[in-house]
Amino acid sequence: MSSVTNQGVKRSMRGSWYALFVLLFLYVLSLMDRQIIALMVTPLRRDLGLSDVQVGLLEGFAFVVMYTLAAIPLGWAVDRFSRRIVIFLGLAVWSLSCSGAGFVTTFAGLFASRVGVGVGEAALSPGAHSMLSDLFPRRQLSMALGVFVIGANIGVAVSYGLGGTLIHWLSVAEKLQLPLLGEFRPWQLAFLIAGAPGVALCWLLFTIREPVRQRQGEGAASSQAVFAPVVSYVRSQSGALICVFVGFALNNLLGYTILSWAPAFLERRFGWHIGEIGPALGILLGGAGICAMLASGAIADRFYTRGRHDINVRMSVVAMLIAAPLALCAFLASTPQICLLFLTLTYFCTSSTVPNAATSLQLIAPNELRGRLAAGYIFLSNMVGQGMGPVTVGFITEHVFHNHRLVGYSLATVLPCAAVAGSVLLLIGLRSYGRALDQAEGLAAARVDGADIGKRPFPDTGRGVGRPLAATNDRFDGRSAE
User: Fold this and answer.
1) Residues spanned by the domain of 121
2) What is the pTM of this model?
3) Domains in the chain: how many in total?
4) pLDDT tens for residues 210-229?
5) Are 113 and 104 within 8 A, CB to CB?
6) What's the CATH number where 389 sits?
7) Pairing verdict, β 176-178 and 182-184
8) Is residue 212 part of a domain?
9) pLDDT one-digit tens code per residue, 294-322
10) How far apart are CA 362 and CA 365, in angstroms?
C-alpha cells in the first residue's frame, strides 16, 4: 500500500514540475513581448518623433495601468474559475496585441497596443501563483516560485539577445515588404514576430491539469465575492501588507527601470549600437537574474525548514541595501565595461528579491484569496515599479537635466533612493509580517491536526509557534482534478 502511494505521489510531482515548466515558458513569452520595446527607443524617437517622456509612458504607464487594473477582476476569476482557461485567454490577448503593434504608425496606436499587452499579461501571474501553491508543498514553494519567476530573466535574455540581433539585422533595410501585409519598418516587423509564438503555442496550457485547491479556509464560501473578503483580510493584516509589499514594490522599480532605460543609456553614453547592446544585456542581466532567483529560492527553502519562516523578507532587506551603491556606480561609470559589471551586480540583487515577494504573500494568504491578493500585489508593485520608474527617469532627464544624453544621472538618482526606501519599509513591516506568518502557520498546523494526518510532535519553529513541519509537508498528496 505504501509503495503504491509513493508511486502516486511521484507521478503527481512529475506532473507538478511539468506544469511549472509550461508556466515558466509562458512567462518567458510574456516578458519578451513586454520588454522588446526597450530596444526600440531610438527608432521610435526617429520615426514617430517621440520624447523621452512619451517613451517612458509606452514602456511603463501604458502597459502597467491596464495590467494592474485588470489584475483585480482577473484575480477574482482565478479564484472562481479554471485557472488554465483564464491564463489561456490572457495569453491570446497579449500575443495578438504585441503583434498588432507592428501595424500601427502613431503614438496613440502604440499606446493602445501596450494596453492590450498589459490586460492579457495580468492573467498569468495570479493564475500561475495560485496553481503552483496547490501543486507544491509549502516546504518547496519558494523553489517552485523561484523557478517560475526566472522566466522573467529568460525573457529578458531572449528579448534583448535575440531581439537586439533581430532588430539590428532588420535595420539594414530601411523598409521591408511582406507578401499580403504590405510595407513595414524594422521595429514594426520586430513587434509582429515577437507576438507570434504566443499565438502559435497557446495550446500548451491544455497539456497540464487543473490542480485541486488545497488548504481551503472557512472563508472559501465567500470566494464569489470580489472585494469584501480581500478588504477584510487587508485590514486585519495592514501592518504586514502595507509596509512589506510597498517595500517589495520599490524593488520592482529598480528592476523595471534598469530594463527600460539601460539600452538607451549604453547607446547614448558609450555610443553602442543595438546589435551590441542586446546580446550583452541579454547574457549578463538574464544570466544574473536566473542565478539570483534560483539561489534565492534554494536559500529561502533551506532556512524555512530550519524554522526561520520570515527569511524571504530578511534576505530582501540585505539585497536592496547592497543594490543602492551598486546602482550608483553603474550609471556613473566611465567605461562600458565597468558599467556592465556594476549593472549586473545590481540586477543580481534586485532579482534575488522577486521570488521572495511572491513567496512572502503566498505563505500568509488564505487559499480562497490567493488569486486576488496576488493580483492586488501585482497592482501595487507594477504601479510603483513599472508605472512610476521609467516615466520618472524620462521626466528628470528632460525637465531637470535638459539633455537626453544625461539619462545616466537620472538613473543614478532614482535607483539608489528607491533601494534604500524599500529596504527601510521592509524593516518597518518585518515584525507585523512575522505575526501574520505565525497566524497562517498556526492555521495550517490546526488543519493538518484536525484532518488526523501525521501524528507527530510540534517542534518549536523559532518564532514562538509550534508547527508540525513534517506533517504539514506530508499532507500534500499532489492530487489533481481532470
Assistant:
1) 15-206+226-474
2) 0.72
3) 1
4) 777 765 544 444 444 556 77
5) yes
6) 1.20.1250.20
7) antiparallel
8) no
9) 888 788 878 877 877 788 889 999 999 99
10) 5
